[in-house]
Write a structure and sequence with these properties.
Layout (H helix, E strand, L loop, with lengths): L2 H34 L22 H4 L10 H6 L12 H12 L2 E2 L5 H9 L12 H9 L5 H8 L4 E11 L4 H5 L7 E13 L4 E13 L12 E6 L8
Antiparallel strand pairs: 1-2, 2-3, 3-4, 4-5
Length: 241
Amino acid sequence: MGLLQRRFLLGTGKRRSWWIGVLAILSVVAAMFILALPAGGTRTEPASPLTAGSAPTGPAASSTFSPVASPTAASALETPPAVGEPRTTDYRRLASAAATAIYTWDTRTASYSEVYSRLRDWWDVLPDGSNPLTVFVQEFEATGVNAGTYATLAGEQARRSATVQSLVCDGELAKVREHPAPWAGLHVCTATLSVIDQSKSDRNAYAAPVSVMVNCPPASTAPTDHCDVVGFYATPSRIVY
């Protein structure tokens, strides 16, 4: 083979190797481009950093939370607040609070035992036993609820709330003027309540009277620094007017 022939073949081989290298590089670039495309075949812009991690807003946002019940404005107004016995020497204030507590309960939040026990704690039994707990039970049931009816009312999600409309005490009551309290510090008050009974299917508003006996200093049977409730009457024939 001549010298020119060998040079031509050598040049041809170099060109062939060069083209093969170029084609290989182009194939790799094309493959990388194709792999970079999304499944649909078109390229999309990356999500904006302002929206990619933002929490949902508006009505749809609430659906991302677990459905925990929260009271509406209406139900919050319907639900009476917890009634606690005030520690006070103001017998009118204590009588008013007791009258409200006697006619306040909610089957959605408290059992009958809890309602009974809470109100029982208000009733201070006197040393002479003249105001036994049997009277407490009788007068509490005179408000129209006992263990049996409460269980039935619980099935209706029933509740009762009360607001004092008027309060008259001691000499303002004709019966007390006729028969004064047997010792200093014993007070009798009669409250007229605006009562609301309601359930998931019914609502009834009415007025109810309740008489409350409060024992305060200087009575020897009273605490030295506050008054105690020593009785109440809800039975119509025993209300003090």
